[in-house]
């Protein structure tokens, strides 16, 4: 993608940012790896993410996709805490496995001056078929606000 | 709407269903009222719904919209725990007020045999301008599974 | 809505803008009226909008919703030809009547400095039940570019 | 994907279906190839697809994505003319090149009994960066109606 740029943060720096800025939820997630197109992010599924019947709740999958695109954007523009989601959509495709973590594969499709767009495939760890597909748009603050 | 039908459940029955089927989250929400088009639902904003800077988190707003359409559908077809979200989209319009509950105004737009569609406006309690707009589609199980 | 402002263009001015800037499609549409929340727009359904079976095509409904939000935005900020759609979503709820025009009821939900968001209900003329629901986001050019 | 199946139609059969069922628009599109995940579809950009400034119109891109997922679904389930779009969303990422065709890369993510979901990347022919991203859901008629 012509406007995509190389990461400015390492996986370690991204993980530290997550712990520092989102202490309430950082323990739920593990940054698996930075990828050429974005990032792979794991939701460490625990009791609090489940719904009756043992499936992972919709809001938990939404949170995974939302954080995934956020981290993918930050890894490219640096640790700017101010980017905000303006639009998100998610299709729930199959029931996730309750006993397995969820893995999100995030792909940045646009990284413009004002807006960034990414899409996400979510799978139960070890399974080929996606359980959800999502797309999110982030509004990026003007450059003078960036760290 | 020609395929919309009168509620089959009272507000009290809907609240009892919520408490029974979703004990993990029922305390976060209050059913304000059944409306001719759907339902009004309140998120009782607490510390765990907030993000740094004091704003309500995106996943919390998603959860409110998702549950709102679910309850609107159930109020019309009866207490079927098996309806599942197939698609959801949300636009975040303004920063919610941290000190105020969120109110979701849910409107059913379609209640078909297989699919139900609703949209949602979310406002900070007492404010006119919406903080989010959402739409959700639910897949409804075949009639033989209904209560 | 606190950031919504009174129209800057009359219905007549908006219709002239449409004819001047979009001569290819202006004949398909009629501006019914400016409303406190946005605009009502009519698609004058003709043979070229139909699909086999006599229903109005999805792209025709998309075009109606897209133009509707565009005109609602312009009516409030003035005739800026440069606003561009960044995101659009549409739910197809029922089959439209082939013999009837489509009426779009457009509601502006946000009119910010950079982004405008609107939603749309589309009905077959004279029918109560909506045939489609849409939401669109427009990116608004910086103020120095505005007319 | 575990529920994806091998194509039941050849590229030639799919092209003939398109010509037969959608004579109004078939000339605008070329089926490039069936792929393991779906289909690649070309919009042969002509004057009628353009907007002022020489860019391809949003409704034209919507039509490309919509038809692309439709053909991907049909290629796997056989020539069922009755599948209908229930939900579609599109992000417009960059301005397409007016002088170039658009190529849609369609990927089926779910092919269930009732619903099929696909996503689409659209590029100007020969360019790496996508100009649009879309996702669509199709409702599939009950099996007794299938050819």
From TrEMBL, chains A, B, C, D:
CDD domains: PaaI_thioesterase
Residues covered by the Thioesterase domain: 53-126
Coiled-coil blocks: none
Classification via InterPro entries: HotDog_dom_sf (IPR029069), Thioestr_dom (IPR006683)
GO molecular function: thiolester hydrolase activity
Pfam families cross-referenced by the UniProt entry: 4HBT
Domain of life: Bacteria
Protein name per its UniProtKB record: Uncharacterized protein (TIGR00369 family)
Species: Albidovulum inexpectatum
């Amino acid at each position: 993608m012509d406007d995509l740029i190389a990461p400015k943060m390492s996986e370690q720096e991204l993980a530290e940012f997550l712990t520092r800025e989102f202490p309430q939820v950082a323990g739920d997630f593990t940054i698996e790896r930075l990828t050429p197109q974005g990032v792979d992010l794991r939701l460490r599924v625990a009791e609090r993410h489940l719904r009756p019947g043992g499936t992972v709740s919709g809001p938990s999958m939404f949170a995974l996709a939302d954080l995934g695109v956020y981290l993918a954007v930050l890894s490219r523009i640096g640790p700017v805490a101010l980017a905000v989601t303006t639009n998100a959509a998610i299709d729930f495709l199959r029931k996730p496995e309750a006993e397995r973590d969820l893995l999100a594969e995030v792909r940045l499709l646009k990284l413009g001056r004002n807006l960034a767009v990414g899409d996400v495939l979510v799978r139960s760890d070890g399974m080929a078929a996606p359980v959800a597909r999502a797309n999110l748009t982030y509004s990026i603050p003007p450059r003078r606000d960036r760290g």
